[in-house]
Design goal:
The protein is an alpha/beta fold and about 270 residues long. Helices cover about 45% and strands about 15% of the residues. It binds nicotinamide-adenine-dinucleotide. The site of nicotinamide-adenine-dinucleotide has 30 residues, from helix 1, helix 4 and helix 7. This is HSD17B8 protein.
């Protein structure tokens, strides 16, 4: 076997990991051998996800809109696992359904605090941690058949932010949600440029409707939404959270080292 490859395990951090896309991604990371910190405002759901992982996991309670809490989430992860190779910043809320004239101002603040400020804080403290980490220099011969080994040639870390197809278009009656998802793409592109030379890649995923509890809540807001949505996809159905998870782990992997500041739309052909 060639020498020079790392022998340690990779570490992932997933916010909003107690449900839906975050849970599916934590499970996927663990299948690939990553140790995974699962962070959520709902600690019980984070613990439940950790119980589903094949590798050692860590449940972290965090409100991503709180700066001290996000810093503590990063510190706790590093204390437990030593570093953060990959982060999926994914915690999000949909807010209310109202046209802008009737939209409650306090709900605008809530959505922006979680979806945008929360995302900004996670990226800020994760990048600060990644800058302290040494670049990984791995030898392909050592990791070709060993997914548990680190795959991040020359990288300090990889970040993926969950935007949405709402971040590429309009979503009537959900102005704060839609605005926050557009802003996440701007945040992603900007930080990617700020730290590209430091070996930190930052990308976004833009899922269309995905079969999660958030989808159920959208339907509660909007009773005829599911039928419209399923029919509106060329593939005839919405996404499974596991399909979004596959895109996240791919963006984090050495398969796409030149991809940074990108968004990957997963929209069933729509
Ligand atoms: P979900 O509601 O199933 O999961 C979201 C998770 O985020 C929950 O576990 C929740 O407790 C957690 N969370 C909420 N506020 C938090 C906070 N302040 N701090 C920490 N955790 C918090 O929803 P999902 O569908 O899995 O959504 C995940 C992400 O994907 C969201 O950002 C969402 O906007 C985005 N998204 C979802 C869809 C969809 O159709 N489901 C489509 C595109 C994008």
């Amino acid at each position: 076997m060639a020498s020079g490859g790392p022998t340690r395990t990779c570490v992932a951090l997933v916010t909003g990991g107690g449900s839906g896309i975050g849970r599916a991604t934590a499970v996927k990371f663990a299948e690939l051998g990553y140790h995974c910190a699962v962070a959520d405002i709902d600690e019980a759901s984070a613990r439940e996800t950790v119980g589903m992982l094949k590798t050692p996991g860590l449940a972290v309670q965090v409100d991503v809109s709180n700066a001290a809490g996000v810093q503590a989430m990063v510190d706790t992860t590093v204390k437990q696992f030593g570093r953060i190779d990959c982060a999926l910043n994914n915690a999000g809320i949909e807010g209310a359904r109202e046209k802008i004239v009737d939209y409650p101002v306090d709900m605008f603040d809530r959505v922006m605090n979680v979806n945008l400020k929360g995302m900004w804080l996670c990226v800020k403290y994760e990048v600060a941690q990644m800058l302290k980490q040494e670049r990984v220099v791995s030898n392909p011969e050592t990791w070709a058949d060993k997914p548990e080994l680190c795959r991040f040639q020359g990288q300090r870390g990889n970040i993926v932010n969950t935007s949405s197809t709402a971040g590429l278009g309009a979503m009537p009656e959900f102005t704060p949600y839609c605005s926050s998802k557009w802003a996440i793409i701007g945040l992603t592109k900007t930080v990617a440029q700020e730290y590209a030379k430091e070996g930190i890649r930052v990308n976004a995923v833009c899922p269309a409707t995905t079969d999660t509890p958030m989808r159920d809540r959208f339907e509660a807001h909007w009773p005829d939404w599911q039928a419209k949505t399923d029919a509106s996809y060329p593939v005839g159905r919405v996404a499974a959270p596991e399909e979004v998870a596959e895109a996240v782990v791919w963006l984090c992997s050495d398969a796409c080292p030149f991809a940074t500041g990108e968004y990957l739309k997963i929209a069933g052909g729509r």
